[in-house]
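Journal club prep, shared notes

We agreed each person brings one worked example of a sequence with its structure written out as tokens. Mine is MotA/TolQ/ExbB proton channel domain-containing protein. I'm keeping it raw so we can talk through how to read the token line rather than staring at a rendered picture. Sequence first:
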Amino acid sequence: MVRLVSLLLLLLSTTAFSETNVNQQLLERIAKSKQQLMSIEKQINQQSLSYQKQINQALNDVKALREKASAIQRVADEQILSVEQLSQRVEKWRAQDNYQKLLLQSYFEQNSTPIGQFTNANGEVVISENVFNTLQNQLVDALVPRWQPSKVVDESGEIAHFNVLEMGPISLAYNQERALGGLVEQHINQAIPSLVKGVYSDSEVAQLAQLNQTGLGTVMFDPTLGNASKLQNKQQGIIEHIKKGGVWALPILFFGALSFVVAMIKAIQLLKLPSIKSDLTARLSSTDELRGAEHQLVEIAKNYPVSNQRDDQLVAFLMKYRYQVENYLGVVATSAAIAPLLGLLGTVSGMINTFMMMNTFGTGDAATVSGGISEALVTTELGLIVAIPSLILSALLSRKAKSHNAKLEANAIQLSKYEF
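Then the structure, token by token:
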């Protein structure tokens, strides 16, 4: 028994010792593993920092290479752009050279200068010192006024030979055989210039003849360069101005004349009416003579006693008298309303004609569309000219008629209760 107990104690002590050793070994292994883990983490961190530095260096290198590539590309683009600009500049120079050659050729042709001495084998004008010398000589000659024979259309519309003196933009012409002369103007779309009509008198033509013969004389010229004569020729009378309004000007003038005639007749009628005073009943006992509508109102009041019958007779007379006074006043007001509408109708018609002309002949020539524009504007002008005075006359006449009728009605009310 004792042996058995001893044996058990021995086993228990052996087991406890074994467990202690195992635990100690495990703790040692865990500590060793932690050290290895810390070492590996430190190594990984060091490698990460190294790799990060390498990546940053690579990114910086890429950025520098990109900037260098952009600079190279920019230089290449600038070189290409410079070539394009030079090409455009060369094209402009060529166009300018061609324009100068064409301008010189046109100038020589207009001045009847032989152009063969200034051209090459291909017929192109060569700008050289000879060309500039010729131009200089011609300009010097142009600065000195000289009489040159030329064809001019005279005042009768015939083409005749005149001696023409050009002084800048001003041209004078004189025909010694016919003793005719004056200012010369060049019209658009007219190859031969013509004399300006109605400007030079006989004394001024004599001065022009003296200038032609002796080189000394006093001449008159137009500082407006023909604009004054154009304005003088454009002046027109009332009839010509109305004719520009076309067919729609006729009804506008008709309503204008009708309104004026009716307004004058009604004005005379209203002015001839006897004045109405407010004290009619007070004047019945006096010796004042009553005239016109007041006299008729008194007669009605005398013939009928104070009753509804007297009132009816007075009202009937007032209505009839009002109609006589205000009759035809509506014609003036109607004319004032219709005239601008007719003007608007003429405006629409004129614009339609204008667009038809523009569609047919285009917009290059203003004379082809001026007729429709004149019709559009003149009819509107005539409509307003008729409407404004008609409206004023209608207001004045209506006010006069209403005032007269109102005073007469007030007197009629007094008579309706008056005992004779």
